[in-house]
Amino acid sequence: MIVIFDLDGTLIDSAPDIHKTANEVLAGEGLGPLDLPTVRSFIGHGVPHLVGRLLGAHGIADEGRAARMVSRFGARYEGAVGLTRLYPGAAEALAALVAQGHRLGLCTNKPVAPARAVMRHLGILDHFTAIIGGDSAPQRKPDPEPLQMAVAACGGGPAVYVGDSEVDAACAAAAEVPLIVHTEGYRKTPVEAFRPVAVFSDFAALPGIVAAQAEVLACGHGVPAQ
């Protein structure tokens, strides 16, 4: 089976690095820093959205300034790995899924280059057959196209999506791919609203969840997230 993962908030806690980079870019514009919870709440829709929210927090709406900040953020983003950590047990779960014969893919709104950089830094890049980022398709999540691209790049066939956020839930529903939710990520609403096929807080549970879902899909009884 194909298992597609989100990245930020699902496999990695990258909020500290994103927070640091955001405040560096704000400082370059002569704007004051924002706290970690505020910046964390902006994560999930890609860099342009994040920058828009950074400016919005300062009461600024300026497309030219936003474009300049997106460029400056991007220049720093690929090297922003020092504070990012894998969630406990994530590396072991990925290795177990590969050992079970599953094909792994990534579908994130983070641009491909920084996604690859942080995955390489954390030692998980080689587990993945395909990586689809926020700059891989004309539309970002929650549009279904990036997730569909990731499934196709892994060879097509039965798939599940492992994510943590409202964006992931909407994307999975639009693509009609069953959703498994990591509950320790960046979501803002109750997990029940996502209508997942399964949830987990401990990555040790994930290989068993995926195995059970593979059996369900093999029998033709999979119920996509709605």
What's this model, at a glance?
The protein is of the alpha/beta class and 226 residues long.
Tell me about this structure.
It is built from nine helices and eight strands. Mean pLDDT is 95; it is low at 222-226. 43% of the residues are buried. It has two domains: 2-13 and 85-218, 3-Layer(aba) Sandwich (Rossmann fold); 15-77, DNA polymerase, domain 1 (Orthogonal Bundle), CATH 1.10.150. Helix 6 (112-122) links the parallel strand 4 (103-107) and strand 5. With 226 residues, the chain is of the alpha/beta class. Helix 1 crosses helix 4 (63-77) and helix 3 (47-57) crosses helix 4 (63-77).
- Nearest-integer average pLDDT: 95
Number of strands: 8
The helix-and-strand class reads: alpha/beta
Give the strand line-up of the largest sheet. Answer: 5-4-1-6-7-8
Which CATH class of the largest domain applies here? Alpha Beta
CA-based shape: elongated
Going by CATH, what is the homologous superfamily of the largest domain? HAD superfamily/HAD-like
| Portion in helices | 40-55%
**Rg value:** 17 Å
What is CATH's topology name of the largest domain?
A: Rossmann fold
CATH architecture classification name of the largest domain: 3-Layer(aba) Sandwich
Measured by DSSP, the beta-strand proportion falls in: 5-15%
Q: Low-confidence stretches at least 5 residues in length (pLDDT < 50)?
A: 222-226
Order of helices and strands: EEHHHHEHEHEHEHEEH
Number of helices: 9
